[in-house]
Specification:
It is built from 13 helices and no strands. By secondary structure, it is mainly alpha-helical. It has one domain: Farnesyl Diphosphate Synthase (Orthogonal Bundle), CATH 1.10.600. It is globular and about 50 Å long.
Length: 291
């Protein structure tokens, strides 16, 4: 059981939880009553779909030789031999199916337009590493993760609560979009050597360690800088700046990306970025409840 739990990579679930909470809080700020059942169902469906993505990604990374005992970027259940590839793949397919069924339920409750959000999440999750696209291997991972787990998820969560599509949640999602992208990018920046050896292309490989580390700092601090125009434009309340309380964590994270570059130094960079994303996102979601 613990092996399967680790295969789901629970540290990364913040990428699913935060945008859903932010979308719901923006709906409350807009004057809609919070539907706790819909919120819970959305959170569960979101985590299930991300877990499915993690499993299928592990399968394709292992099959393509991207993951090995020397690399850090996987759950290690395949490279360590705890599970068989076909077990991991079909578990991922099962979770994609379960998440899709929950999405249909939410569509019935909130409106069938939600299925467009769900279809984008399903296709984006599977084809992150899945054949024939595998956009992670084509240096498109960061761009699509920003869209899918930033504006799209926040906007979808807002729709679940309101039954309406509005521009506000898509724009207000920018801060968490920057940080969720930083989680993936920290992983890819650490794995430049392993990914290069496997013959794949990532944005980190194209930029190289030096320029790549500058981009990482831009993503982290861009999340904070984007709060100011969102507040000035009336999309978020002044209490949004309470999210700045997480800035010391961001400063310590940024220190990892200065000085000499090494894979070992960045071993936990993705986990630490996920922790920052969670704390920042929770603070932002709580403050968005203020009308």
């Amino acid at each position: 059981m613990m092996t399967w739990f680790m295969a789901l990579r629970p540290f990364s679930w913040t990428a699913s939880l935060v945008p859903v909470l932010l979308g719901a809080s923006l709906a409350v700020r807009a004057g809609f009553a919070l539907d706790l059942f819909r919120l819970l169902l959305t959170l569960v469906a979101s985590v299930i779909l991300q877990s499915a993505t993690n499993l299928v990604s592990d399968y394709f990374d292992f099959r393509k030789g991207v993951d090995s005992l020397a690399s850090y970027g996987s759950s290690r259940v395949l490279v360590g031999g705890q599970l068989k590839p076909r077990q991991v793949f079909w578990a991922g397919v099962f979770l994609f199916t379960l998440g899709s069924l929950l999405g249909v339920w939410l569509g019935y409750l909130a409106g069938w337009e939600l299925l467009y959000f769900g279809l984008a999440a399903l296709l984006g999750g599977y084809f992150y590493c899945g054949d024939p696209f595998g956009y992670k291997y084509r240096a498109l991972g960061e761009a699509l993760v920003f869209i899918l787990m930033g504006p799209l998820m926040v906007g979808g969560s807002y729709y679940v609560q309101t039954g309406h599509i509005d521009l506000t949640p898509f724009v207000a999602a920018l801060p968490v979009g920057f940080l969720v992208t930083a989680i993936l990018y920290a992983n890819n920046l650490r794995d430049i050597a392993d990914d290069s050896q496997a013959g794949i292309r990532t944005l980190a490989i194209l930029l190289g360690p030096e320029r790549g580390r500058r981009l990482m700092r831009i993503l982290v601090f861009g999340s904070y800088l984007s709060l100011f125009p969102l507040w000035a434009g009336g999309l978020l309340p002044w209490t949004t700046f309470l999210a700045l309380a997480s800035l010391p964590l961001a400063l310590r994270l940024a220190d990892l990306f200065r000085g000499e570059y090494s894979k070992g130094k960045l071993a936990t960079a993705d986990v630490r970025t996920a922790q920052l994303h969670l704390i920042f996102g929770l603070l932002l979601s709580l403050t968005a409840f203020v009308r």
